[in-house]
Amino acid sequence: MNIVSRVQFPKTAEISDLYFKLSNDVSINFKEDKKQFILHKDTIISLNTYFNSLYEKYYTKYTYINSLYYLLRLEGNFEVFAYRETSEAITREVIFNQSFKDCKISDYAKFCLPKLKHDQEAGRIYLEITCLSQQGLFTEGLVVTEQEKHRDVSLAIITCTFKKEVYVKKTVNTILQDNLLQYKHFKIFVVDNGVTLNTSDFKDYKFKLIYNRNVGGSGGFTKGLIEALQEDIYTHFLFMDDDIEIDSEAIYRLFSLYEYAKKDFAVAGSMLDLYKKHILYEAGAIYNKSIDDEGNIKQDKFTGYPLKHNLDLRNTITLTSLLLEDNIDYGGFWFFAFPKEIVERIGLLLPLFIKIDDMEFGLRINEHFDNGIVAFPSIAVWHEPFYAKRPIWDSYYHIRNHLITNSIHSSLEYVKTVKIFTQSILYSLCIFDYNSAQMVIKGFEDYMQGPNFITNNYPEILHSKIYELSKSYKNQTILVNSVLRSEFYQVTKAGTFQKIVTLLTLNGHLVPQFIIADESVIIRVSVKEEERDSICKGLAKKRIIYVIDENPNSYQYEFDQKAGLNILFTWFNSAIRSCLRWSSVSAEWKKAFNDLTSMQFWQEYLELQK
């Protein structure tokens, strides 16, 4: 008997809809160490949920598993139904049902599923449990197979952290306290770039703390990966961000996937919104592409576009839609697993400090592996959503590292690239966000220095300089509580003439100073076009209050004509100077790529040979 997965129980009532759907008279005891459902006659517990559905289509496609049964701890009399939903069918199908009488908590009730189906017939399977007695209990569920594992899996779990002690301790304890995981072979490597953790906080032989310079996420993950490789016992590796909330069942299910896998592949764990916990924020992503309103994929340079984005996982139609697989280009390092063979074939990470390192690694995996990357439903973590993060220095790494990655994996046309960045800079100038415009220019200029720029700069020193540069214009004020949260707010659109004037005057930068009115305007930014203000509202105004939907902060920018014109001149000067060297710089990055992802480079870069 091998346990493939478990029926997951919620840790709080807030997220219970992701685990169970309950009829009115069912209650769950959250206070006990071992949670239990208390049922009454004719009440129902449904596993028609994100975490407790059995995604048959993925198991039969990627693993050898074809026979499963449930072991349920029940007390009382029950009837259990198993249903299947597919992306093709309109209604659900009953695939098996069974009655159980006089169940005791001390014994398992065995509920066998029919042989699993393949291809289009496969779907999403879930149970519904109806209590037939006056009162009943449900305390545990296991998904089990009698099939032998095809391999033993040894997993190195690698987390890179910088001053996120609370998150890291919680994650480590969650994993180490999982009773079933104790029977699996794994070790947690925490790479501490901030040197703020103590070994005394972690006293388990399955844990290793590694102090490191602040070489960013790519450097921290690579340091942990090298340490794990040196032990020479791990078949697979798992990267996890330091600021996630995780249920250890995600790791248990990962083990099962790899133990029964037909071929090796990478697993991109899905990202759930930490602030709206029922929302699926991303299940894998595509690179240099986006999806229009009609669902068509189009080319879009310097873009990482999330798939299965912003879906409500309480909706059962959404759950069945997860059976439709996307072609994934990469997965975020909040939870990203891969076999040792990938490292042996494609090398280590690219030294990008932060941003785009997961994208670039995913592109390489897809180039060399048939199965590539799989976003297996229900393997997920909660992570802070990107709409809540907007540090200005982040733009520098976004620009620089996108350029590097495109040089290696794509083609960069000078005119198109300069056009895209010019539009970005002009937009920033039009809302008086001079620091963001400066980050674009700095990212572009550092890319143009070629790969020697990476090898000749200590990343922690460079980051300190970038951080200070991102604050060099003092015209930005962060407003902690947004000034705009009203459903009665009237969106302002601009006519053609106003747009032309805004562009020709750079929203007031090219007009005499006395024309600028000492006034403030609100510009609302929304994903929906119809709810988005025109930046033309800021024409000839002194201040813009920039409000981004769902972002907890608003930003007040103050007009500075001299700063705006200086940035514009700097950008055009930089773009013109780069014209002649454009092709050669791109070739230099492509040529240096193999060296930058080699063990020898990283040992020198991380100073491991000292």
TrEMBL record:
Glycosyltransferase 2-like domain ranges (all copies): 157-271
Listed EC numbers: 2.4.-.-
Sample GO molecular function, one term: glycosyltransferase activity
One Pfam family linked to the record: Glft2_N
Keyword set, alphabetical order: Glycosyltransferase, Transferase
Residues annotated as domain Galactofuranosyltransferase GlfT2 N-terminal: 5-134
Highest taxon listed in the record's lineage: Bacteria
Entry annotated with the keyword Secreted: no
Gene3D superfamilies cross-referenced by the UniProt entry: 3.90.550.60
UniProt entry tagged with the keyword RNA-binding: no
Name of protein: Glycosyltransferase
Organism annotation: Pelatocladus maniniholoensis HA4357-MV3
Lineage: Bacteria, Bacillati, Cyanobacteriota, Cyanophyceae, Nostocales
